[in-house]
């Protein structure tokens, strides 16, 4: 067989694998949309659906113009990339269009996470600003740190932090912690929704209006996660030396298994945990538990044993339950539990990887299975403190970076009067006050306006 022809076939199959993974990750946008729509009240369903569309379309442009360059631009700068703006010089010797599309699908997912934290009380204009800024600068810089070979935290760097670099294979920190911390600051600066806490500071239930959409969104996200985690190998036809029957295809399969086990374990633990706390079985809580397990395993999905993924999911469930209790105690209001789920479970995922990463799997994920290389592994597995220390540094660095960028942005939008809607608009619902009508014909409350014109007349009378 002609070696050049064989190489072309291999490259083609790898490109198809990456493109298919990109399509799976993009399906997660539909999952986010359904999850968000079901988790808010009916009078805000149209608004949250539109914001999910905006996150995708605005994020696409910002990531094309600036984001990909900041994340993967060829540069000796360990902080930020400096080339490939507007895809200039793509394809290159390093990246092609399929790689851009895959990374773009990750970028727009970050904005979707943040949108959930500030749902039901945010002006539509604000979404345009923060989506552009988050996907164009804030997220790409973190992606450069971890996923560019020049990044200062990268496990592929020529100068490894603590001799290890931080392992965040598919983005517990890069994607989920970034989105969660951004959402946290947005929710804190905006404050709780009207009526979320009574005059005595006790929480008032504001359940989502459609459990069916929540469950549908959860399964769509589960499906998409098989592109998110296994797809992060980028290439599937990579054989491992000294293993005639194993290659990246083996690790891809194992990664899908660890992802499934972590999410499933977190879901079942949340089911019984919440049953003990509230006295009934709650479908929406279980769905968030499943997603919390997925978020946590995303960092170490490729470098841990299946049994460790069960440990990951078990702990993620209790972390999510605990953070939700603390959120109510401190009167923090996040309709999608996005900060607790993506931020808290994402942080746990980084720590978990530093504890349970297996050296053999680390070599497979980052060195194509070459056995002559020595890499630090998880602390609990005898790998020393190098990897664990790098994971902690990543966690703290992401929190500080996102806080210093997104916090001031939300504060500025609030001061300019373009972040939070008025109390009257919030009570009426964003669908009628901002979008001209309800998502459903029968969704309007009996005491509320039925049409946009009726809402305007009520505003003039008041």
UniProtKB/TrEMBL annotation:
GO terms for cellular component: plasma membrane. Keywords: Ammonia transport, Membrane, Transmembrane, Transmembrane helix, Transport. It is a multi-pass membrane protein. Its main location: membrane. Residues 18-440 form the Ammonium transporter AmtB-like domain. The chain crosses the membrane at residues 15-37, 49-72, 101-119, 126-147, 167-189, 210-228, 307-327, 339-357, 385-413. Pfam families: Ammonium_transp. InterPro entries: Ammonium/urea_transptr, Ammonium_transpt, Ammonium_transpt_CS, NH4_transpt_AmtB-like_dom. One of its GO terms (molecular function) is ammonium channel activity. It is found in: Cell membrane; Membrane. Belongs to the ammonia transporter channel (TC 1.A.11.2) family. This is Ammonium transporter. The lineage of its organism: Eukaryota, Viridiplantae, Streptophyta, Embryophyta, Tracheophyta.
């Amino acid at each position: 067989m002609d070696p050049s022809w064989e190489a072309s076939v291999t490259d083609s199959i790898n490109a198809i694998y990456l493109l298919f993974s990109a399509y799976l990750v993009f399906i997660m946008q539909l999952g986010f949309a359904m999850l968000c729509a079901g988790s808010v009240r009916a009078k805000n369903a149209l608004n949250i659906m539109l914001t999910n569309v905006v996150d995708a379309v605005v994020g696409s442009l910002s990531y094309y113009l600036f984001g990909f360059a900041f994340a993967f631009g060829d540069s000796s700068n360990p902080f930020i990339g400096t080339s490939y703006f507007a895809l200039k010089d793509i394809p290159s010797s390093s990246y092609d269009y399929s790689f851009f599309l895959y990374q773009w699908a990750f970028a727009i997912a970050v904005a979707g996470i943040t949108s959930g934290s500030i749902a039901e009380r945010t002006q539509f204009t604000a979404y345009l600003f923060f989506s552009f800024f988050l996907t164009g600068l804030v997220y790409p810089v973190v992606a450069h740190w971890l996923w560019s070979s020049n990044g200062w935290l990268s496990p592929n760097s020529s100068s490894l932090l603590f001799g290890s670099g931080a392992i965040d294979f598919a983005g517990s920190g890069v994607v989920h912690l970034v989105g969660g911390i951004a959402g946290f600051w947005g929710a804190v600066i905006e404050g709780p929704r009207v009526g979320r806490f009574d005059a005595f500071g006790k929480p008032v239930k504001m359940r989502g209006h459609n459990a069916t959409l929540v469950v549908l969104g959860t399964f769509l996200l589960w499906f998409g996660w098989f592109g998110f985690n296994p797809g992060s190998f980028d290439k599937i036809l990579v054989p491992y030396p000294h293993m005639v029957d194993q290659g990246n295809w083996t690790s891809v399969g194992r990664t899908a298994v660890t992802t499934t086990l972590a999410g499933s374990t977190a879901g079942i633990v949340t089911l019984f945990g919440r049953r003990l706390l509230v006295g009934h079985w709650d479908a929406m809580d279980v769905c968030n538990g499943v997603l919390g397990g997925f978020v946590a395993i995303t960092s170490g999905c490729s470098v841990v044993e299946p049994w460790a993924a069960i440990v990951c999911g078990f702990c993620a469930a209790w972390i999510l339950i605990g953070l939700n209790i603390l959120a109510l105690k401190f009167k923090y209001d996040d309709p999608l539990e996005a900060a607790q789920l993506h931020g808290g479970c994402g942080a746990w995922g980084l720590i978990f990887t530093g504890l349970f990463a297996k050296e053999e799997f680390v070599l497979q994920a980052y060195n194509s299975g070459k056995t002559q290389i020595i890499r630090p592994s998880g602390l609990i597995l005898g790998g020393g403190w190098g990897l664990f220390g790098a994971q902690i540094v990543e966690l703290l660095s992401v929190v500080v970076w996102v806080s210093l960028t997104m916090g001031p942005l939300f504060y500025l939008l609030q001061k300019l009067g373009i972040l939070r809607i008025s109390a009257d608009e919030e009570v009426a619902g964003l669908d009628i006050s901002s979008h001209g009508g309800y998502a459903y014909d029968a969704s309007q409350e009996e005491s509320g306006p039925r049409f946009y014109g009726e809402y305007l007349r009520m505003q003039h009378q008041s």
